[in-house]
Amino acid sequence: MTTLTRKLLQWYRKRARKLPWRETNDPYRIWLSEVMLQQTQVDTVIPYYERWLKKYPTLQKVAQASEDEILKLWEGLGYYARARNFRKACQEVVERYQGKVPLDPQVFSTLKGVGPYTLAAVQSIAFQKSLPAMDGNIKRIVSRLLRLDEPPSKVLSPIGAFLQKNISPKQPGDFNQALMDIGATICLPKNPKCLLCPLSLDCEAFQFKQAHFYPIAEEKNPRPHYRAAVGVVWKGDKLLISKRKSEGFLGGLWEFPGGKMKMGESAKLCVEREVKEEVGVEVEAVKSVGVIEHAYTHFSIEMEGFLCRYLKGKPQTLDCADWKWISFSELKKFAFPTANRKLFPLLPKTNPFE
Residue 184 CA to chain centroid, in angstroms? Predict the structure, then answer.
């Protein structure tokens, strides 16, 4: 064990954050936490994690659940492919591995949605495999420790070599989680709390008073902004909703049919065109209910909602996976993207055309 590792583990024994997934040895629960924590803050994850386990206390329960049920429980957590992939992976564990999470890293890595980080985190914490985890926090820490003069994405090899050299063979899970905790609470992206860090004497950036310069920033492309419009189509006392295809962005979620506006196209014409192209129904977009704005990781949108009068046509799955006519009160039963849900308070609860 290196001196750095000894300091790290001593600090962790005293300062480890108390988190619900650290109170279990169940590989399923540890795996679930790591899936939920990808790109998501701990405070956001905890209530979702607890609600999930209340409904799905075992991996087998996840495997038996429908995609709609899984996505509804995940609603609002974002990055929905995580939920779809986790369900498929649980099904594979039940079908091929007698319902037991594989403790062979090579086998575990073949499961749907298991990338290098999830592999290392779950295998080190659940099965004590000496696999260093590399998330954004840990890359930042090592970039500062070694004063690496390129963005983390370009120096993954030296970061990985440093972690492999220092990881505790007996407590690899604690090693990884200690670095996660330091990255989340001390070695922050801005204004790092270096005087509280157990590794400050090993940190070149701190020694040279340059912690705020590291890591070197990644090059970022400007985030695109799109204008979109959706139709809230009424027929009698029912609303029309469509389901996004499973593969792809926001896959498997329900939404009001619509899409991006073409150059020079009005929101009204966009809605009428998109509804016909998506579900094969002709509508008249009568009245705007308002415009909402929403930012995703890689782009942002402003989306206008239109109350639409149904004209003719039977819904079809032309550019969607499914469709339903539902009452206003049933909206809460389905998993919708956040941007769609922002429209809910702006909608009438009954057909405005009758």
Answer: 18
